[in-house]
C-alpha cells in the first residue's frame, strides 16, 4: 500500500527525517511517499502558523489525491486534519492523533515532550481537540534557542532525555510522546534512557494508517464527516478548488 | 474609535448585513470599517472552509493593520482568531466569542441557532475551543436548502423563530444566539416572538470591541499570546509575510 | 445612561475606590451611581459573609430600582447575582463575571490575584458557578495581615505585583485579574510591571454594563431567569418584599 | 443525641412533615429538634429566595447553638450550608447533600423529582455545587399549580409516582430522590410503585447526621472550612453578629 | 443489626484491625461480623490483585448471604462492589466509597493518604469510578518498604502524619482519608496532629451501612443494579454459581 | 507474528467467530492463536461476570505466556486489561479499547451498538475507564431475548442495522462500533446499510496489536504499569501465582 507523508512544513530536511523514521516500522509492501509543503514556514510552531499550514495541507492532499491509499498529516498539531477528513474519501491520520491513540494502549496517561516553548499552546489545543486532555499528564518543552530545525534532535538529545524523565518522575507520565516532526526517529536512540515507553509520532501514524487501510472503513455519507456539497470559490489552488466544487472526478 | 469588521467570507452582501446590524448598537464616535475576504468561499460552513478562511483572515488583518483600533472576526466560528491574537497588538474579538460571552450575562445556558446543518460541526468546535461547552444547551440548525446567502434570514425568518423557540422549550436555553454572519440583524425583527433574550453576533462583537478599546489592555509579552519571534516564510501574502518576519514596523 | 454600582460591603471607602476606577473607562454620557450596603460586614470574605451579602444586595437593588439602566454587583464574588437576575428586569453584571468574560477575550487562561487568603474558597466557588473553571489557571492570594481595607492596595502593591508575576511564570496565566473591590484601580498603576494584560473588575463591569444597555436584551419570560410568580414573605425589607410580592409597580 | 432540624422555610406545616418523616428512621436515643424560620418565605423555590434563606439559616443556627449535637439544613437546596460549616464547630448536613450521598450507594446515577418547576434551577445549582452533576441523570419537576404547600405531596401523589417512573424508563435513573421538604415522608407510601430505591431527603440527612455525630470529626483549623477570624458587622441578628465577632463563647 | 465486614485480603491481622476500629463507632445493637478472604493475596495493592480480589469478594458474600443485614467491602479500592450490588439484595458499601462520601460532608475536597506507592493507580481508579475525582485534591502515598502489613500503621505513624499534613498545606485538602484496611484505627491516634478532619474507611463504612439498614431501601428491579437473569457457569465456587443461576433461594 | 486471541467467555462458538473476523484483516505473516476461557460464564454481560472474567483472563494469559507476541482481551468490556498490562511484558490490547481508538480516527464521536440490554452498564464503565466518554455519542442495546449466543448476530441482523442507523440520525454518531464478541464479523455484511463507518472490535484489535508489535515499545519500569514486586498468594492458578511471585522465568 502507498501512504502519503504530507509534511506541511517547508523544510525538506524534516521530511527526510520523517521518512527515515517511518520506514523503520512500515510493514512489508508499504511505501511511504514524501511530500513537502510548497509554501508556508520551515516549521509550524504557533496558532497563526498552524492556521496557514492547515490551508496548505488541504492543497497538498488535493494535489496528490488518487495516487495513494492513506495520508498522514505529518506535523504534530495535525493542521487541516478535520477538513481533510471531510473533503476526501481516503483515510487520513494526524501525527499527534496517532501518537496519542497509541500512547493510550501503553499507559494511563502520557506526556508530550518537545524542543521549543512556542509549540506548547498549539499542542495543548490539538490535545483538547482530540478529547485527550484527560489522558495527558503534561506538556513540557525545552525553552532555549537551537541551531537548525533539521538537526535539533541531535543538538538537544540529552536535554530531551532529561525532560522526558522529569515527566515520569514529576508528572506521573506512563508514556512519553516525543512530539514534533523534527524529532522523528529520536525515540529509537534514547529508548533505553527513559523508563517508560516512548512514542514517535510518525511511527505511530504509519502503524495507524496501515491498520486503517486494512480495515477499509467506508466514507461517511452522513454525520459530521460526510463530504460537503459542491461550492464555488475564489483564489484557491486549482486542485483544492476542484475538490471543493466537486470537479475532481 | 475605528473597528474593522473583517468578514472572511467573500460575499459583500453579508458584509453589508453585518455593518447595518452593528451600527444599530455602536456608540457615538465608533466607526465600523467593512472588509470582505478577497479569496475563499462565499460563506464558510465546514471545517475545511474554516481552515482556508483562517489563513485568509490573517492576511486581511495584516493588510489593514495600523488603520483601526480593534478588529472583529466577522464569521461565527471565529476563523483565525487565535493566530490573530498572537500576531497583532490590537484587540481582536470573534463573533462567536462575543455572542457567547454576552449570552453568559443573560442566562445559565444559551443555544445556538442557525440556517444550515453543515455549520454544526464547525460551531460545536468553536464552542469547545472557547471552553463554553458547559454553558451551551444545544446547537440547532435548519436542514433544508435556501435560495441566497444574502437573503437567507428573510426567507427562513419564521422557521428560525420556531427553531429558537424549540431550544427554549425542549433544550432549556435561557438565551438564544442567532449565529452566522448571514443572520446579522435578524434578532431586532423577531425579538418579541421568542421569550428569552436573543444575541446577535455582530452586535455583541461591537459592544465587546468598544469595551476592549476603552479598557486598553496591554499586549502580552509573556504567556501563550505573546508575539512569536520573527520567521521566514515562502509564498504567503506580502503583508502577512512581513508581519511574521517582524518587517511590519 | 445610569449604572448603579451596588457595593454589598459596608465600607464607603471601598465604594469610593470603585467609582474612581470605574470612571476611568466609562464612556461619555455614562453616570456611575454609588451605593454602599446599609448592613453586613465591611468587606465580604467568606462563604458565610457572602450568604449575608447576597440577601443585602437584593434589598439594595429593590430599594433603588427604577432609577438606573443597569446594575453592577460590586464585590468580586458576585453575591446575589443569580437572584437579582431573576427578580429584576434591568441588566445586572457581577464584577467577577465581567472580569472573567473580558479576560477570556485576552488569553487562553486567567489567574485571579487578591489580598487575603480567606477569599479563595468564595472566589473558587464563583468561578465554578460561572462555568469558568476550565479557563482559570490559578487563584493566588496574599496570606498576611493588612492595616486597612480601604488602603490595602497601596500597602501591598509590590507584593501583589510579585504574586501576579508568579501566576504568569508558574501557572501559565495569559491574563491576571486583580480581584476584590478593595483593589479597584490598582491595575492602572502596575500594568507595566506585569507582562500580560491585567483586568480590573469594576472597569470590566462598567464596560460590560454599558454594552448590555446598548444591546438592550429583553427580560426573559421563559427559562430559568424568568421572574418568579408573586409570593408572600415575612420580615424582609419592605422594598424587597414588594418586589417578591409583585407589588412594586 | 440531639439533632436540630432547621427548616429555613417559614411554614410550620412543612416542619411537622420533616419531623414525622425523620423520626421514622432515627435511631434509639436520637432526638430531632424542630425549628422553623422566623422570617423569609413559606417555601424557598428560587435563587433569590435561596439567597435570603441562606442568611436566615445562619441566624437560626447561631440562635440555637450549644443545644444540639448536629444540625440539618432542612430545605433541599441546602441554603447556607457552606457558611454554616465555616462558622460552627458542630456537624451540619444538607438535605440535598445527604440525599445525593445516600443515592450514590444505591446506584450509578440518581434523578431528582419534585413538585414545582421553579425549583429546578436552584436544585441544579446545588447538585453542581456538591460536584454531583456527573451522578445526576435528570431533574424533573411537575409543572402545574398546587393548593397548599403543606399538603402538596398528597394532592400530587400519583403524578409524582408517574414522574419518578419516567426518570427510570427514560433517563436511566438507578435511584430517585424525592426532593423538597414538602415531600418528606412520601417515599414510604409510594416505594412499591417505583422499581428503584427512593431516597427521602430528611431521612437521609438524619442517617448522615447520626453517623457524623458517632464519627466525631474534629473541627478544621486549616483548609477552607476553618473558622474565619473575628469581624465586626452592622445590622445582623445579635446571635449571628456574636458568632461572626467571636463573642459567642 | 448484623454487618458483614468482608475483608478480601487474606491477612487475618488486618481483619482484626478492621473490627477493632469499626467497633469504636458502631451503634448499640450493631454486631460486626468478620470474614477474611480464603484465597488471594495478603493485601491487594495493584490492578491485577484487585481483579482477583473482586471475584473472591463475590464468592465471600455468596457464601455468607442470609446471615447479615448489610455488607462492607473491607478493602479501600472496593473490589467487587459493583457486581455485589447487582447480585445481592442486601445493602453493600465499599470502604473507599464510604470514606469519600463522609469526607464530602466535611470539606470541599479530600486527599487520600496511604502507605505504599503501588496502591495509587488502583485508588485513583476507584475515585474515578465513584465520580469523585472532582472532590479529590490529591492521592499521596509513602514510597518505602515496611516490615509487616499487620503493623505498618504503627511503624509508619509519624511519616503518615507528615504526609497528611502535606496534603493540607500543599494540595489544599479540607479532609484527609487514611486509606487502606491496614490503616484502620490510625485516625483515632493521630487526629490531634493533623489540622483537618480525618476519615477512617471502616468507621465511615460502618456509619453508612448502619444508616442504609435503617433507611431500608428496596432492591432495584429496574436500572443498572437490578439483578441479572439466571445464567449457567463453569468452575465457579458453588455458592456463587448458585447465586448466578438463581438457585440460591 | 503470533497474536493470542484470549476469549474470557466460555463459549467456543464465539471464539470461532472472533478468529474468522480477525483473519479478514490480519496482515501476511500474522497468526491469530485462539483461546477460550476454561471457567466462567458463556458470555460476560454484567459487572459481576466481568469481575469473574477479569480474574480468569489473567489466568489465561499467565498460562500461555511465552508463546505469542501480543495478546487481545477478546471481550468488549476489556476484562482484566489493566491488570494484564501490569503483570506482563508483551503488548495487550482490549477489544473495546481498540474499537474506540480506531473510531476516533474516523469521526468526532462514536456510538456503541450491541445485542443485550444487560451489557450497557459494563460497556459504559469501560468507556469511562478509557477516558473516552467525551467521544461517545451513545450506547444503544437491543432489549429482547435471543436464541443462541453463537448465532445472535444472524438472528438480529436487521434489528442491529436499524439500531445503528438510529444512533446516526438521532445521536449524531459519526462512527458505529458493533460491540461484543458475539457480533464479530457482522460489520462486513451490513456495512453498506449504515451511512457511516462501522468498527468491528476484533478487527480493530488485530490492527492495533499488529501495530504495537511493530512499534515494539519497551516494558515500563516506572509509572503505573511497571511490574509489581513479587508477592505470595493463596489458592490461585499455578501459572498466575507463579507470575505474581516472579517465579515465572
UniProtKB/TrEMBL annotation, chains A, B, C, D, E, F:
Superkingdom as given in the UniProt entry: Bacteria
Pfam families listed in its UniProt record: Asp_Glu_race
Any GO MF annotation of the entry: amino-acid racemase activity
Family recorded in the similarity comment: Belongs to the HyuE racemase family.
Protein name: Asp/Glu/hydantoin racemase
Species of origin: Enhydrobacter aerosaccus
Amino acid at each position: 500500500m502507498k501512504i502519503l507523508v504530507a509534511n506541511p512544513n517547508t523544510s525538506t530536511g524534516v521530511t527526510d527525517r520523517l521518512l527515515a523514521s517511518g520506514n523503520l516500522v512500515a510493514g512489508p509492501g508499504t511505501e511511504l511517499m514524501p511530500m513537502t509543503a510548497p509554501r508556508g514556514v520551515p516549521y509550524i510552531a504557533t496558532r497563526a502558523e498552524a492556521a496557514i499550514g492547515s490551508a496548505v495541507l488541504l492543497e497538498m492532499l488535493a494535489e496528490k489525491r488518487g495516487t495513494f491509499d492513506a495520508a498522514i498529516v505529518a506535523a504534530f498539531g495535525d493542521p487541516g486534519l478535520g477538513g481533510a477528513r471531510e473533503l476526501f474519501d481516503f483515510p487520513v491520520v494526524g501525527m499527534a492523533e496517532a501518537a496519542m491513540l497509541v500512547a493510550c494502549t501503553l499507559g494511563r496517561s502520557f506526556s508530550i515532550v518537545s524542543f521549543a516553548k512556542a509549540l506548547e499552546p498549539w499542542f495543548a489545543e490539538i490535545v483538547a481537540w482530540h478529547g485527550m486532555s484527560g489522558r495527558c499528564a503534561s506538556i513540557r518543552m525545552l525553552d532555549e534557542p537551537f541551531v537548525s530545525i533539521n538537526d535539533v534532535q541531535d543538538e538537544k538529545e540529552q536535554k530531551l532525555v532529561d525532560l522526558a524523565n522529569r515527566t515520569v518522575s514529576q508528572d506521573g507520565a506512563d508514556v512519553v510522546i516525543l512530539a514534533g516532526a523534527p524529532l522523528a526517529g529520536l525515540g529509537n536512540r534514547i529508548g533505553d534512557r527513559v523508563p517508560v515507553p516512548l512514542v514517535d509520532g510518525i511511527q505511530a501514524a504509519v502503524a495507524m494508517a496501515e491498520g486503517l487501510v486494512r480495515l477499509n472503513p467506508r466514507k461517511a455519507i452522513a454525520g459530521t464527516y460526510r463530504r460537503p456539497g459542491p461550492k464555488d470559490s475564489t483564489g484557491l489552488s486549482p486542485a483544492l478548488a476542484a475538490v471543493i466544487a466537486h470537479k475532481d472526478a
